[in-house]
Design brief:
Blueprint lengths: L5 E10 L2 E11 L4 E5 L6 H9 L6 E6 L2 E2 L10 E4 L11 H11 L4 H14 L15 H13 L5 E5 L7 H18 L2 E6 L2 H7 L2 E6 L2 E6 L1 H6 L4 H6 L4 E12 L7 E7 L3 E7 L8 E6 L5 E3 L10 E13 L3 E7 L5 E7 L15 E7 L3 E7 L2
Parallel strand pairs: 3-8, 3-9, 6-7, 7-8
Antiparallel strand pairs: 1-2, 1-4, 4-5, 9-10, 11-12, 11-14, 12-13, 14-20, 15-19, 16-17, 16-19, 17-18
Helix pairs in contact: 2-3, 2-4, 3-4
């Protein structure tokens, strides 16, 4: 496996009275595509700059393959950075922009020519080698920046929101290309983004950050399906999130999940949810269920399963998007549940459920999650 292990231990950073990072610790394994995900101002770019060597932490440690890199300047770390603004030299050709790091090291001309051609081939820009940056599209400029960052063969590639300046379609295309480049060269990628769909699409692991804290680290599946906090549930995709109180807890005979809890949600009523963590009667917490987990129908479901949650409401707003329809279903004056129905078959030409229809909503106790447990 290529690349470097990156270990961050107890890193804190303040700018005056503003605390950008609060005792952050992460383990990033060599060859991983690891994303730092969170809203603007959460500390993700500050952490990336500390890894790169552009900022010094107030406390903590950063190691590459076990070696302390904090005393080293950026150019002596086995890491290169791709910036949102590309940072290309406007007076140099594509070839010379990519060759620049090798020229600095005074590499022989033959090695420079060979390596530049290899990396331009990697990013599919061989036919644009003679052009200047102002003759390129945004996506092409970003590929030049990636080739230039990779030509020194670093152990770690740091990417600071590299696609945010591109339009939506080009961003998606470039994301696929970036993932393919990672697969080809196999080094450690640390990717900063505020776009949860980007992070879910390409990451091996994701660290979700907010206000200088790491709230959860896990695979895209873990982060989406088992959010650890209210914030993670809201930030990663769409969800229905409600305050609730534990009314009853039952230990299940099987091992996973271990418990069935009954929650009281004001305005909605009793909801059943399974959990691997024991909660106690009277505890206040949050309950979440993803819109695509909720089944919507005009007819009352015939199931007699005890683990099914069932409610009736009225469609307040149906939004048809071709491949899916999103429904906002009003249960009463205080509760609205979002539902997403996928159109998986050709016969699904449009929604058979329309505005003001009375509908039934149902979901399994296994499809909801308890987050944000608070003290009694």
């Amino acid at each position: 496996m290529k690349g470097s292990d990156v270990i961050i231990e107890g890193v804190s950073k303040s700018f005056g009275d503003f605390k950008a990072l609060n005792d952050v610790s992460l383990v990033i394994r060599k060859g991983e595509f690891f994303s730092l995900l969170g809203p603007s101002g959460c500390g993700k770019t500050t952490l990336l700059r500390i890894i790169a060597g552009f900022e010094r932490p107030n406390s903590g440690a950063v190691t590459f393959d076990g070696a302390d890199v904090l005393p080293l300047p950026p150019n002596r770390r086995q890491a290169n950075t791709v910036f949102q603004s590309y940072a290309l030299f406007p007076h140099l050709s594509v070839f010379e922009n990519v060759a620049f790091p090798l020229r600095l090291k005074k590499k022989p001309k033959g090695i420079v020519n060979s390596r530049v051609k290899d990396y331009l081939h990697l990013v599919q820009l061989e036919t644009h080698a003679h052009k200047k940056p102002n003759q390129l599209s945004g996506g092409q400029k970003q590929r030049v920046a990636i080739a230039r960052a990779l030509i020194n063969e670093p152990g770690v590639l740091l990417l600071d929101e590299p696609l945010s300046a591109l339009d939506a379609k080009l961003r998606q295309h470039m994301l696929i290309e970036l993932d393919q480049i990672h697969d080809k060269i196999g080094i450690t990628f640390i990717y900063v983004t505020h776009d949860q769909q980007e992070a879910l699409s390409v990451s091996d692991h994701i660290a979700v950050m907010d206000q200088g804290d790491v709230l959860q680290v896990g695979t895209p599946h873990d982060i989406y399906e088992s959010p650890a906090t209210d914030f993670v549930a809201r930030f990663i995709g769409e969800t229905n999130l409600y305050d609730a109180t534990v009314v009853r807890v039952e230990k299940l005979p099987k091992e996973e999940p271990e418990y069935m809890a009954e929650l009281d949600i004001a305005g909605l009523g009793m909801v059943k949810v399974t959990t691997v963590d024991q909660v106690k009667q009277g505890q206040n917490l949050s309950f979440t269920v993803r819109p695509e987990k909720v089944v919507i129908s005009k007819e009352k479901p015939a199931t007699k399963r005890e683990d099914i949650n069932l409610f009736q409401g009225q469609v307040e707003e149906p939004i048809y998007s071709g491949f899916q329809t999103k429904f906002y279903v009003k249960i009463n004056d205080s509760i609205m549940i979002r539902v997403i129905k996928q159109h998986a078959r050709y016969s699904d030409e449009g929604p058979d459920i329309v505005w003001k229809d009375l509908v039934y909503l149902s979901w399994s106790a296994n499809d909801g999650y308890i987050v944000g447990v608070r003290d009694q």
